[in-house]
Amino acid sequence: MYHHFCDFLNLYASQHVNSSGASMFSKNIHILVWESFAYESAFSDTFQAFTMHPIWNLNTFRGQVVCFNNIILPLLPRMIFGLYYNTPLIDGCENSGLFKAFSQHVLHRLNINQKPNDNGKIRITFLSRNTKYRNVLNENELISALKNHSQYEVKKVVYSGNFLTFKEQIQITYNTDIFIGMHGAGLTHLLFLPEWAVLFELYNCEDEHCYKDLARLRGVKYITWRDINKFTMQDKGHHPDQGAHAKFTNYSFDKDEFISLVEEASTHVKKYKHGYSPKLHDEF
């Protein structure tokens, strides 16, 4: 997801640079992906925020001479200063208007709604991994500990097309107060957290800047595990080429320390959520 959204943010920014007027965000446009194969991914629903038409690729016009009446070439994606672990629009930039506008644009165009939280509980989404590595071995213990606190409403999810559509995933994220998960592309969902929310990257697996920087740019609170003596690695990790590696193993976490960090996140939510209410969609 992280790398796909490098391109979606690029597409959104390109609309600002290359066009003007009310038609600049029209969905009556065609998008041509410069590849010879069809675009297929778990995130293809996102294109519905940009176009009402099927996505073209080079095979769409194989063997033809094509002339375009009006064409926009996008900004170059994934450059050294692109959305790739960080985007230094201005050094140290926080709460970037570009990132916030991109988030709201996608939420609006995909018709993602924020639901009233009638019970007043803090909504926690625990992102479980359906992968070989970076699993939380005592995940059930941690979730049970959260459920013992009456102030929390806890949901465990697997963000995979086998379980939830991408729109369903974003709907859950947008109605989350504290989003918890191990280092991994699924944390890119922080782009669609509400303003007061907290991203709790359970452990950054020694890649400390990736989602910390993205949370900073989006303008949501970020916390991660601090005491390395209070988690256990299953083994030293086994990268196929680099040997021992923190991203290629699984983890167990101290329950009490986990609850303490969630309480820290909860304090932030309580402080900043007050006064917010579900917003009506507005294109701009």
UniProtKB/TrEMBL annotation:
Residues 96-198 form the Glycosyltransferase 61 catalytic domain. It catalyses: L-seryl-[protein] + UDP-N-acetyl-alpha-D-glucosamine = 3-O-(N-acetyl-beta-D-glucosaminyl)-L-seryl-[protein] + UDP + H(+); L-threonyl-[protein] + UDP-N-acetyl-alpha-D-glucosamine = 3-O-(N-acetyl-beta-D-glucosaminyl)-L-threonyl-[protein] + UDP + H(+). It is an enzyme of class 2 (transferase). It holds the Pfam family Glyco_transf_61. Transmembrane segments: none annotated. Keywords: Endoplasmic reticulum, Glycoprotein, Glycosyltransferase, Signal, Transferase. GO terms for cellular component: endoplasmic reticulum lumen. Its EC number is 2.4.1.255. The keyword Signal applies. The keyword Signal applies. It comes from the Eukaryota. GO terms for molecular function: protein O-acetylglucosaminyltransferase activity. This is EGF domain-specific O-linked N-acetylglucosamine transferase. It comes from Schizaphis graminum (Green bug aphid).
